[in-house]
Amino acid sequence: MSELTLTVMRLGFLAVLWLFVIVAVQVIRSDLFGTKVTQRGTRRAAAAAEQRPPQQRQQQPQAQQGRNNRQRRGAPTKLVVSEGSLTGTTVALQGQTITLGRAHDSTIVLDDDYASSRHARIYPDRDGQWIVEDLGSTNGTYLDRTRLTTPTPVPLGAPIRIGKTVIELRK
Amino acid sequence: MSTVTNTTTISSIGAPNRRNTELVLLLFAVLVPVLAYANVGLAKDGSVPGGLLGYGLGLGLLAGVAHLMVRRFAPYADPLMLPIATLLNGLGLVFIYRLDLEPAVTTRGLGGPKAPGQLLWSALAVAVFIGILVLLKDHRILQRYTYISGAVALVLLIAPVFFPAINGSKLWIVIPGLGSIQPGEFAKIILAVFFAGYLMVKRDALALASRRFLGLYWPRGRDLGPILAIWALSMMILVLEDDLGSTLLYFGLFVVMLYVATERTSWVVFGLLLASGGATAVGMTSGHVKVRIQNWLDPFAGIAQHGATEAAQVLWSFGSGGVLGSGLGQGFSRLIGGIGVKSDYILATVGEELGLAGLMAVLLLYGLLIERGVRTALAARDPFGKLLAIGLSSAMALQVFVVAGGVTGLIPLTGMTMPFLAQGGSSVVANWALVAILLRISDTARRPAPAPASSPDAEPTQVVRL
């Protein structure tokens, strides 16, 4: 065996070994699970994006409709926090139950002195209508001005108030 | 209010089933050792070794069967543990084969070639791995056997005392005609089960009932019982079996699990004090341990009178490897001599032939394996699974530390094997079993929770998911 071949083999093997390590690290990177938080830039940029009607925004609900036949036209596609410390946070509505409260495993973890640890939840009923329900909170959940006592359907754009936080469903 | 507010979107992602990723990584993990094997043959004889196909197929078959069983019995398990274990085991086989080619360390007195035996042990280890995946449907079953595990571990730890010492340490149970097994390797798994079960029940008493003194929370006298008992046991092993490494492993495992269960720093401080005090006391008295400590403090002493010690030879082989290594099959680690070249000192051959770059890659692989174990512990939903996963991964971490620290001269050398890499049947079987239990825990942890009933009538009796 020539010296050159052996040197190439030696360095080549080290390269392959490190490649495995790097691929393994990439797998770990793609393997993160839990809650995904996507930063959407500043509010100004988001506002500008909302003014133009981009194609993507239109396609998203359609794609979702294909997946979920129960979803009606004009059904809300996202939940937006419009007031309070989490202003600007959006959660995509994909048929899952959204829990609100100060507990760490809530979908939206409220940092609000007037919120209970498991304050309220928002879920779709069988017809795809979104329902808000107070989970026995101390300070109550308000839809518009009325305090909730029973699970109530949420109209599009109606403010749900929890302490200092206001949430609404949007298309 | 400022106009610059970050807009964020939150969506929950479940851990996906990553079996295809695992398959791709596994192919890679078989290919790397095959390349290394060809490399050794080319460097030693100038031709590709004849057994290449058989070795490659053998390793591939083992990995393939293990993968199919994981697909069938633990579909949501972690995708990285099996490929990393396969790669390390395959590399270990190549290094043992490479050392078998050196006549000086493959004499009849030293037991002849070890690679074929190691391949057999690896096959047995994968069979044990599959057996655990199939039979252990849920790791919480192990919780029932908390105190039985404690007793079994005690027996395994004490048993070697009654058998003759090999190489100065009493670590083996010798079965005439069959060979010897090292029960300590299995004891680390069984001890982790015992500690996890015990601490899960006692954690509150250990964590909450304490007095504050000197800025730390100190446990009550009566809660000191278990830690003192484990300490006494470890010291007894050290005295009776003359092995510093196992003592460090078992006691370290207990302190780590105690810390994780109670979140009290005082346990770590207390554990370190006890361990260093005990080790110093034994180091003063035991002859075998004293020699090891002297070799550690001054590995190059007495070379002129009676030649270089193994500790010195190991350091020289790391030095001769340099950054990029001498290349596979081109090192001089046969000069270390003795029985330990293929087992305890195998890291010296890795360091010489793959250099610092290769050694770091191998250590990173161990790091990744341990990281996946810790990740499993974080993701596990039940406290027993959490403690068991952290215990098993810290047992492996401590073992890697003791061996790597020993051969590189950071701590005194002790007779322990590098998991997967070193020659030794018990070691390879025990470590595959350890990975199987970790995979079982990670499968349970990453399995998507069953969807709750959507019926609104079910709301007053809501299921509380932990």
From TrEMBL, chain A:
- Highest taxon in the source lineage: Bacteria
InterPro entries, alphabetized = Cell_Proc_Reg/RNA_Proc, FHA_dom, SMAD_FHA_dom_sf
Extract the ranges annotated as region (Disordered).
39-76
Biased amino acid composition, Low complexity: 39-68
What are the record keywords, sorted?
A: Phosphoprotein
Family matches, as SMART domains: FHA
Q: Where is the FHA domain?
A: 98-148
Question: Entry's PANTHER family?
Answer: NUCLEAR INHIBITOR OF PROTEIN PHOSPHATASE-1 (PTHR23308)
- Protein name from the UniProt record: FHA domain-containing protein
Automatic annotation (TrEMBL), chain B:
Bias type Low complexity, positions: 452-466
InterPro entries attached to this UniProt entry: FtsW/RodA
Region Disordered, annotated ranges: 447-466
Its subcellular locations are: Membrane
Give TM segment ranges.
23-40, 52-70, 82-99, 119-136, 145-166, 186-201, 221-238, 244-261, 268-289, 345-366, 387-414, 420-439
* Membrane topology note: Multi-pass membrane protein
Keywords (alphabetical) are: Cell shape, Membrane, Transmembrane, Transmembrane helix
Q: What is its main location?
A: membrane
Kindly provide the name given to this protein in its UniProt entry. Answer: FtsW/RodA/SpoVE family cell cycle protein
Q: Which organism is it from?
A: Streptantibioticus ferralitis
